[in-house]
Amino acid sequence: MIQIHSDYAGGNIKVISLGEVVRLEQDIRDSYWWFYWNFCVRCDEEREVVFEFMHGEVVGPWGPAYSLDGINWTWLGEQSVMNAKSFVYRFNSDHPEAYFAFSLPYQLHHLEQFYERFQDNSIVRRDTLCLTEKKSDVPLFLIGNANAQEHIFLSSRHHACESTVNYVLEGLLAFLIADHSAFLDRFCIHFVPFVDIDGVENGDQGKGRAPHDHNRDYIDQPIYAVTRAIMRYVRELRPVAGAVY
Ligand SMILES: [Zn+2]
């Protein structure tokens, strides 16, 4: 018997049918067609299961991202790819449960793990930028010299599903913090890891949301509290550099 669920941080799937082949599609929600999906499967039999997606090409060249605990992810590998719409996985009784996703997920619990490594470091400070419409905290990190004259602004997840950039920024920041480089004496980095934090945690596509997504909200009358807050924050900060993902 096969059971599928997605009721966890970042989960997203629609089950079409559970037979010899499991048929699925990504849950588009309020976006136009996009490719994000993330689900957990339990299969108590030792056998191969083919997963076939029914709404466009949504399996990348390395196959799905894959995890046994929903926290630590890696790529399942190109040998798992049948075509751009399907992949195959062999369940074994040691691990009847496995998680699969379009790409390596990065959720709030990943960020908390990252922060734990550096929370006692005096050059890393945590704040809240604002609350979202759903009253979630939007985390803001200040990394470096609190009295710096020069500031850098980084933000990611304007499109909720674009998780890989968080691994890149995590690597960059970990390198700078561990090194406690002269760079961080000179600059203060202001980092908003999840602009659309509700979308990230809900497992939304985020890209192409109706009426428009967070990336398209830098307009005269923004509709999201977080983009209003970023516009205000950056105007006051006057950073020497910024990167928006
Ligand atoms: Zn984007």
Following the backbone from N to C, one meets helices and strands in this order, namely: EEEEEEEEEEHEEEHHEHHE
**Quantity of strands, as a count:** 15
> How many angstroms separate the termini?
41 Å
> What fraction of residues sit in β-strands?
25-35%
The tally of helices reads 5
Shape: globular
**Mean pLDDT across residues:** 96
**If you consult CATH, what is the topology of the largest domain?**
Aminopeptidase
* CATH architecture annotation of the largest domain: 3-Layer(aba) Sandwich
Structural class: alpha+beta
Give the SSE map.
Blueprint: E1 2-5, E2 14-18, E3 21-25, E4 38-43, E5 48-53, E6 65-67, E7 74-75, E8 81-83, E9 86-90, E10 97-101, H1 108-118, E11 124-131, E12 137-144, E13 150-155, H2 164-179, H3 182-186, E14 187-192, H4 197-202, H5 225-237, E15 241-244
Parallel strand pairs: 3-5, 13-14, 13-15
Antiparallel strand pairs: 1-4, 2-3, 4-10, 5-9, 6-7, 6-10, 8-9, 11-12, 12-14
Bound molecules: zinc ion (ZN).
Describe this structure in words.
The protein has helices at 108-118, 164-179, 182-186, 197-202, 225-237; strands at residues 2-5, 14-18, 21-25, 38-43, 48-53, 65-67, 74-75, 81-83, 86-90, 97-101, 124-131, 137-144, 150-155, 187-192, 241-244. It is α+β, with helices and mostly antiparallel strands. It has two domains: 2-101, Sandwich (Immunoglobulin-like), CATH 2.60.40; 108-244, Aminopeptidase, CATH 3.40.630.10. Strands 1-4-10-6-7 form a five-stranded antiparallel β-sheet, with no helix packed on it. The protein has a five-stranded mixed β-sheet with strand order 2-3-5-9-8, with no helix packed on it. A five-stranded mixed β-sheet has the order 11-12-14-13-15. β11 (124-131) and β12 form a beta hairpin. The longest helix has 16 residues, at 164-179. It is globular, with a radius of gyration of 20 Å. The mean pLDDT is 96. The structure holds zinc ion. Zinc ion binds at residues 158-159, 162, 207, 215. InterPro entries: Cytosolic_carboxypeptidase (IPR050821).
